[in-house]
Specification:
By secondary structure, the protein is mostly beta strands. The chain has one domain. It contains two helices and 15 strands. Strands 1-10-11-12-13-14-15-2-3-4-5-6-7-8-9 form a 15-stranded mixed sheet, with helices on one face. Strand 3 and strand 4 form a beta hairpin. The longest helix is centred in the first third of the chain and has 18 residues. The N terminus and C terminus are likely disordered.
Amino acid sequence: MKAFERISRQRVLALAIAASAAIAGSSADAQAPLLAAASPTPAVGARAVVPFSVGEELTYKATFGGIPAGTARMRVAGVETIRGREAYHLVFTIDGGVPFFRVHDRYDSWIDVRTLASLRHRQQISEGRYKRSTTYEIFPERGVYQEGDSTYPSVAHPLDDGSFIYAIRAARIRVGETRRDDRYFRPDRNPVVLTGLRQEAVRVGAGTFPATVVRPSIKANGIFSENGEAQVWFSEDARRYPLLVKSKFAKFSLTLSLQSVVQGGEAEETSVASTVAAPAH
């Protein structure tokens, strides 16, 4: 019986690591738009103002119930052309799990540099014996997305799992604000609600930062589910780094903590923290 409980706990841990990859999986009535989309008709060649740059890479340590459980990375890989449109290529990877159940997931997103709408999203999942590779072609101008040979309705100015966290960084949620929107590219997963809770200092492996704590509420299973009581600490500088994520998954606590930052255009890891007098959490 104890052996069964141990194996079950290990599997839950591994699944929680996999769940942490679904940043925007999909959430409830608020007062303001969640993520204001960039103008659909900016000046020719103009790119939207964003708090990230090509070459940025964020590395996180994952723990589950206090147990080290893997490493996650978020990277702005470059600017590529998708169907004639310039797009940021965003990459989210997570590697971890437990013996006999390893997780190696990769999520690629391509978002228009002018409107920040998703154009393509690819999921490459390897969780234990389960393997899956899925590509979604997303057409903002038509309000549809394609999976294989099938076409489905989408939303205006769509975002996907990998791109949502970057859009939230740009949104700059303030304490006391509650924002809502239906921008996830699969309509049945909407809405997503973000609430600014408080300001406080937080200490992570990358340093000590003043931060704004935001609660995401998402209509789906995973770390951002409505019952997960998730909180995300965003740095209050111009970069708005996601510093720390805390949630509950299968009755256990899950934490993602920022360990290092490679700033765009720089070749080595640097600490971008501001030292503050307030106590760390």
